[in-house]
């Protein structure tokens, strides 16, 4: 047996067994890997010195706990943005840096980077995967690009126009429920509760052509969606439970798995049923016929979509995109519309001007339905919506992890592999961009005031290649619901001021309660 000299270790000559050589090789690889990581950490730390940072609590926890998930935390973010308007860096523990970007000129470099360069950072999103799969929210690279191209037709104006009737119908159901509650003396309503059900009702009709009547009676599917959203928000606040193997052992993890199964079962059943109704041949003619009859829904578009090579989406992909749309579409729109009503309740002069604008538009016809062409004829109402989305953005932040160095306009460099948080809330509250950012002022969105403002100053739907594909759908739904609401009701603030609560979307602690009074002239 050959001899191996280990005198340099003080071990003399020993038999060179394969196991010993393997152990040495493994130890050498581990040492090299550790040294490489240490070098990369110190190199990144050196390069990140150009980003200012607030004082750490200590070297071990860094800035953990600096910003709370509550009203106080949002005020802290506002203070940080005022102190560091060009962005800042925080340490999550001793070795994990986060760059926070909150200025239009800076966020542009990341948001406008290609989807292959600025990947969505899954540290914050990966626990949604069992529910949403590889839909547009979570997918990346070539798969994301392919799906984005295939889904774009689903949000074409010709597809969205017929949905306006659904927006009207779902809003009418909600208002009828409000009238019944008011007649019983319940004039103070939780906007999040009512509007969430309304948006889910709308989405089920637009995505699946399915009417569950969920605003009037319990729906198992809708209950599962709401439970999943609540569980996701709760898990997001418990970092240890971001690890799947731990979460699956908890009661919440078991509830999450059960609700996922129920939601997937519903979506799969709709897809299979729709497959049976599709013709074996002549799909293009079938699509054209459905479009003309105005019955094309989201599932139809997905089933009939083809990529450049003529390949269609798999059933698993269709389910992922449908589930993603249900998740993203109900919470964000409900948050946006709830806070819009709150801001108009706090500013009755703007509320009355919006109401008069809608009344004037519908003066010569039956004022019970908003049509597609009306949506472009409500400039002040649109300004009020946008200013509310600035002040209370439904999505507070998005994150990216770049696959290569990104050079910012001021010469600073975001190193490859470092996670960036694009603070939508911070950008919208940046005093260098928005004077008196805490004031609700719809005139900010007057066309004359927009001309010289950066397109990245207002990003409630993100921006760049990975912007929200459903933003026209969401804006249209909010316009219809708001216009009809102001025609029929006066909205007043509750006695208690709501406390903002940032979760996956911006909520209010204990709900967002407003008082509603029916208007005689607009009551149905």
TrEMBL record:
<dbReference type="InterPro" id="IPR002401">
    <property type="entry name" value="Cyt_P450_E_grp-I"/>
</dbReference>
<dbReference type="Pfam" id="PF00067">
    <property type="entry name" value="p450"/>
</dbReference>
<keyword id="KW-0256">Endoplasmic reticulum</keyword>
<keyword id="KW-0472">Membrane</keyword>
<protein>
    <submittedName>
        <fullName>Leukotriene-B4 omega-hydroxylase 3-like isoform X4</fullName>
    </submittedName>
</protein>
<keyword id="KW-0408">Iron</keyword>
<comment type="similarity">
    <text>Belongs to the cytochrome P450 family.</text>
</comment>
<keyword id="KW-0349">Heme</keyword>
<dbReference type="GO" id="GO:0019369">
    <property type="term" value="P:arachidonate metabolic process"/>
</dbReference>
<keyword id="KW-0503">Monooxygenase</keyword>
<keyword id="KW-0560">Oxidoreductase</keyword>
<dbReference type="GO" id="GO:0005789">
    <property type="term" value="C:endoplasmic reticulum membrane"/>
</dbReference>
<dbReference type="InterPro" id="IPR017972">
    <property type="entry name" value="Cyt_P450_CS"/>
</dbReference>
<dbReference type="InterPro" id="IPR036396">
    <property type="entry name" value="Cyt_P450_sf"/>
</dbReference>
<dbReference type="GO" id="GO:0008391">
    <property type="term" value="F:arachidonate monooxygenase activity"/>
</dbReference>
<dbReference type="GO" id="GO:0050051">
    <property type="term" value="F:leukotriene-B4 20-monooxygenase activity"/>
</dbReference>
<dbReference type="GO" id="GO:0005506">
    <property type="term" value="F:iron ion binding"/>
</dbReference>
<dbReference type="GO" id="GO:0020037">
    <property type="term" value="F:heme binding"/>
</dbReference>
<keyword id="KW-0479">Metal-binding</keyword>
<keyword id="KW-0492">Microsome</keyword>
<dbReference type="InterPro" id="IPR001128">
    <property type="entry name" value="Cyt_P450"/>
</dbReference>
<dbReference type="InterPro" id="IPR050196">
    <property type="entry name" value="Cytochrome_P450_Monoox"/>
</dbReference>
